[in-house]
Amino acid sequence: MIPLVKTFIPERKELMPALERELYSGYIATGDTVSLFEQNFGTLIENENFIALNSGSAALHIALCLAGIEPGDEVISTPMTAEPTNTVIAQTGAKIVWADVDPKTGLISPNSIRSKITERTKAIVVVHYAGMVCDMRAINAISQASNIPVIEDDAHALLAQFEGKPIGSNSAFTCFSFQAIKQMTTVDGGGIAVKDPSLVSEAKRLRWFGLDKGVSRLGNDIKRIGYKYAMNNVTAAMGLVQIDHVEGNVGSCILNGRYYDERLLGISGVTTVPYYADTKPSYWLYTMKVDRRDDFIRAMRARGIESSPLHHRSDTHSVFSNSRCDLPGLDEWYSNYVHIPCGWWVGDEEREKIVEAVRAGW
Ligand SMILES: *Cc1c(COP(=O)(O)O)cnc(C)c1O
């Protein structure tokens, strides 16, 4: 079976010496290796204001803290995502207000965002779902006009682009995840890139209980409660090795994705997804719409190919029942979107086989 997701672990002879050195270095907590990882990852995403954390969820939480979100505030978000995007918002006590998605792409609809803004709206969370990039031109214009910060959840879209630059420096906050099945993994891990450099020290305090690591423990005074969110040196050592492979791996995803974009065009029962102006997806998963999805998934499985919609819409979970509203765009999208394998483990032969399997019908 060609899987939809797979964990990339660099070869033993490359990874193990790096991990071993770190483990026996005498300092495995948050230290110089984390700083080096921050520098290198910052270079990769073209934003040096990057703070490494222990998960993508922590990154989202710190973004919401930096945006000053408090109980009673409203945060506009998308239901078409992995659940942590929204459980973290709920954790702050803010009310989630769902924006609908564009039924052609499954990505948050700028028009819907605009219609959901109230005087209580304090942040807009957008997700570059499956590696496709949201309509950032329109979303930037809304953010500027309303003065509401945007938090980009980039857990699915490492090295995807907007206006020729990797996602990471466009909005006030960009959040990354290095969880096991993401485009780059440190087993678990994450990080936040901020646009305003003056927020870096606050972010660093928030990841360490509210303490300032640059001041002696006894000289510290916690003024705002922080969390246990920092990345450690062992994880960072793994991240440094992963960085050496990430452009190659994501590059393979992109080549496969573009191949599908061309080869799946015009096949009966398949509708490919259009991409927004000035955006380039990084194809963590390949996404399309198919008629009679259950039949499609069954036929692909019989041909040795895993396919699935993968994610549950967030808005129908009981914990989010206060936020329920009509989302006709999502209803339309949710009924027939599907993912097919597209990652670095899909070689020329496999992708050819996948196209042939789709072409054969279901
Ligand atoms: C994985 C993921 C997260 C959370 O990341 P963790 O590192 O698992 O905490 C957030 N948002 C999306 C869209 C994700 O897929």
Automatic annotation (TrEMBL):
Keywords: Aminotransferase, Pyridoxal phosphate, Transferase. Its cofactor is pyridoxal 5'-phosphate. SUPFAM superfamilies: PLP-dependent transferases. GO terms for molecular function: transaminase activity. Pfam families: DegT_DnrJ_EryC1. Belongs to the DegT/DnrJ/EryC1 family. This is DegT/DnrJ/EryC1/StrS family aminotransferase. It comes from Adlercreutzia faecimuris.
